[in-house]
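Chain A, query sequence.
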Amino acid sequence: MRKNKVSAHRKDFSILALDDDQVMTLTLQSYFEASGYHVDTENDPVAAVERVRNGKYDILLLDFLMSPILGDEVVSRIREFNKDIYIILLTGHKSMAPPLKTIRELDIQGYYEKSDRFDQLELLIESCVKSISQMRTIRSYRDGLNHILDGLPALYRSESAQDALTTVLHGAVSLLPGADGFAYIDAGHLAGIGDFPEGDHSFRFFCGEGKYRGEPQDGEKVYTAFRAGGAAARRSGDLLLTPLTGDKHEVFGVICLETSQGWRSDLEQLLEVFARQAGSALCNVLFRTVIDAKNRELRDAYTTMHANYLEMVDAMRQMVDAKDLYTRGHSDRVAYYAQLIARRLGRDETYVERVRIAGLFHDIGKLGTDDVILRKDSALTESEYAEIKNHCQRGERILSSLSAFSDVCPFVRSHHERWDGRGYPDGLSGTDIPEPARIINVADSFDAMTSHRGYREELSLEQAIAQLRQGRGTQFDPEIADLFIDILSDYPAICRELAWTFGPDPSQSETNEVRK
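Chain A, predicted structure.
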């Protein structure tokens, strides 16, 4: 009865019988093959070493006294390349066995004194089989854990819940050879997931290799049963069902596998370990999917807001230009020159954009200046000049009421301050003047000098550069003035870029085109 009970499993174990007595090896082969083992025989000890090297044997039965080499030498050679095979030494008499120290050093699992009965040898072999089975289980568990760990990076890198779930199912199937089945999740039951962006966030069903004999609706049925009955793995016939749980141990999915090869407890444990890791990774992917969707919404909102912002900038710029035909396009050019200077100074693009916006709005305070003063084609009186100078503070007040432009208010206020402290409105000097304001001062002055006004003609490029050199260290920051003069060495290209970007300037005379 006992023999029949275990013989079904013995076919998984292979034995090599080595003895220079052919009758002995054939007898061993006949006896143990009848017990269900696979047994090969060998009578040459040197050839046996090569057979172990090239074959897959679990147990080696070998005689001690052989030629041309003894059994201990056979074992010694085998242990150089195979530490796992179980070895039982056969001896004609105990006195002929090697010393116990040698047996231990060569990792021999036991020895058997030859007789007409093989009961004791069979017990030794069964003991080896139990140990081998345990080692196989341990290795299978170890390999399975390594497989799980190796597969987790790909799972965490999944771009969508659907990709992640497919990866989970394939990972589960690969743990259990011959298995097939489905995986199912319902993201709506995952705590904190919020609004799932893919619409119907339940019923994600996949078959592994297409062998699963169940129906697609099984996924929802099994999942519903799990939520009602708790998060514990269950076995039902050829099916093994394992829940997918979140960080708060709530069930939000299930893996169902089917196999006709039977379930080992170690494989069930591996699947539970895998399901816990897969559940955590799926949570990560699901949360990331929601976050990515929210980020897309935020990006879209930002794009819309930025477009509205640019429309507002353009509308306000046109309002300033509409005040005076002779200064139309002036703000665009000042902003363009200012951003060239900021970039040449090595500032980042956020800084460059702030300088550009400040350049566009540096004269916005003139919206509150009387048109008669702005369009006067003769010299201003002292009171009229005082009113013009107020545009710096007025511009600051206008922009401060709009949160989108509050960060450029100080630059608009200070763009008429001078390096020597003789500017307005606050009489700041040197580096006490914000750098963007010093940049705009140079750009603004250059464009004013090279633009046609009703009360005077524009200066030539050479005359304007001479004025910049003359004003460095008094009106202008000397470093910025020198840097801008260097930029102006490519003035024709700058003019072409201005014309391409903003179009022709109606305030510029025909002679100005020649000057360019």
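Confidence is low (pLDDT under 50) at residues 1-8, 199-216, 506-516. The chain has 20 helices and nine strands.
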